[in-house]
Amino acid sequence: MINDQKSGVLYTAGAYILWGLLPIYWKLIQQIPAFEILAHRIVWSFVFMSLIVILARKRTAFIEECRYIFKSRKRILGITLASLAISINWVTYILAVNTEHVVEASLGYYINPLVSILLGMIVLKENFSKAQWLAFLLAGLGVLYMTINFGSVPWLAILLAFSFGAYGLLKKLVPLNAMFGLTIETLIVTPAALIFLFQQQSGQWSEVSILSHTAFVVFGAGVVTAVPLLLFSAGAKRIPLSMVGFLQYIAPTIMLIIGVFLYDEPFTEVHIVSFTLIWAGLAVYTVTRMKRLKRYEAKAS
After folding, report:
1. What are the residues whose beta carbons fall under 8 Å from the beta carbon of 139, sequence distance 6 or more?
2. I need a surface site. Which of 6, 86, 211, 270 has the fewest CB within 10 A?
3. Where are the domains of the chain?
4. Is residue 211 scored above 70 in pLDDT?
């Protein structure tokens, strides 16, 4: 049991570390427009995940999962909306990285857990505790402080947080195995991605050699998308949810460090105040969540 939990922590932490390092990967092909990178990411993620399903001998189970989804209009709508939400999240993230907004991207993933709480309250009618209200208020003040002082709303961060929050909510409404989920989601949007790519008769990608370094990075988009998700799936089921909640802050912390120290993005006094307010909100949220989960786990045992 202890070894199982250790491997769970390693898998989950590994997933978040890889997600945190993704800005370095997207910077390698920043000369290609974000929507073209998105289209390639969708297509090659589908190709890679299809290979995983075949090699894992899960074809029959995958077909059954597809039948289950496509028997219900509600499930079809849910998985289609999830595909659109994660596509919006991916292209926003790529755009943020390739326009020198890695720090803002980290902000988006810091506030994402609190956005998920808000969406759960609105859509699922979940109860909002006083501590959660406080956490959300502190994070909101952080974003508001940054908006007032910089004179513009951090739209990339907000779009990242809400698109990923919506994706998580839709995945909760239409629960799927992680492997099958990503495969079906990319399957749904792959036709549109292929049409978009075939229409691109000009641009940076059209001039890239199929054997070039850039081409290999583009083709590898499927791998860097799928591997962290598979690691997360393997790790999350081995450790308590409270531990998963704690580990999730690894990714935005790595992004923040990369943005400031590797890409020399500004981190001013305004950033310090805003991030401190957000971190305070996250601390309140995390402590409250861990206490609640420990009580739940104690009752279940």
Report:
1. 111, 114, 277, 278, 281, 282
2. 211
3. 2-300
4. no
